[in-house]
UniProtKB/TrEMBL annotation:
UniProt catalytic activity: 7,8-dihydroneopterin = 6-hydroxymethyl-7,8-dihydropterin + glycolaldehyde; 6-hydroxymethyl-7,8-dihydropterin + ATP = (7,8-dihydropterin-6-yl)methyl diphosphate + AMP + H(+)
Organismal lineage: Bacteria, Bacillati, Bacillota, Clostridia, Lachnospirales
Record has Lyase as a keyword: yes
Stated family: Belongs to the DHNA family.
Name of the protein in its database record: Bifunctional folate synthesis protein
7,8-dihydro-6-hydroxymethylpterin-pyrophosphokinase domain segment(s): 206-217
Organism: Bariatricus massiliensis
Amino acid sequence: MDEIRIDNLEVFAKHGVFPEENVLGQKFLVSAVLHTDTRPAGRSDELTASIHYGEVSAFITEFMQKNTYQLIERVAESLAEELLLHTEHLEMLELEVKKPWAPVGLPLECVSVKITRGWHTVYLALGSNMGDKKQFLENAVKALDTWKGCRVEEVSSWIATAPYGVTEQDEFLNGCLKLRTLLTPEELLQVLHKIELDAGRERKIHWGPRTLDLDIIFYDDLIVETETLCIPHVEMHKREFVLRPLHEIAPYKHHPCNGKTVREMLEEL
């Protein structure tokens, strides 16, 4: 990925733990590395094909001046999120916020916080076998698409499938979607649980009937195994009701553990 750099943009703003810092203000230095594809602009000579670093600099200045936070960690996190949400063509961002002459009672040039944030590609499986199944699934798609830091890019068709695990229950309506998100896997899992809860999901019987079921299948090419989260989904390669709709929107997505494409895993079933 190519880079556009902004080095040590000077901004006078009011951030700090001490009350006088929030009143009197002080100078901050902000540096940003904007990760994007510069080739379209490089070949066309069109500014709209790239990131306008002047507008980004103005955005940083305005954001720093109109908000007041105690910690520069919060400044960096909030600013990075807003830049990613509002800057076209920006895929990833390295951001450093420097605070010269920080009031620590010792001679130093500055303290700073440096973070890297960016968009992630996630594939989710959706299912419902209670009530108005189609409406539950469509509501979940809408909720995800309107959640801050999430953008639904593609949704499969819905397919009717036989229940899995506990078979004496109504058939399911299943599908998959492609999501772009700024959330971490853990943050996304919390959002999914909130959307399920809002749909009346009750976790009484394992693999039992449910109004809404949302599972993370892939998160970039990340491999995660904790007590609460397993990515890629541990059972996905065995489930036709996941692979069929996933194949519709991502047939050549590779499983980061076994290296097989979604198409290959579906054919093996």
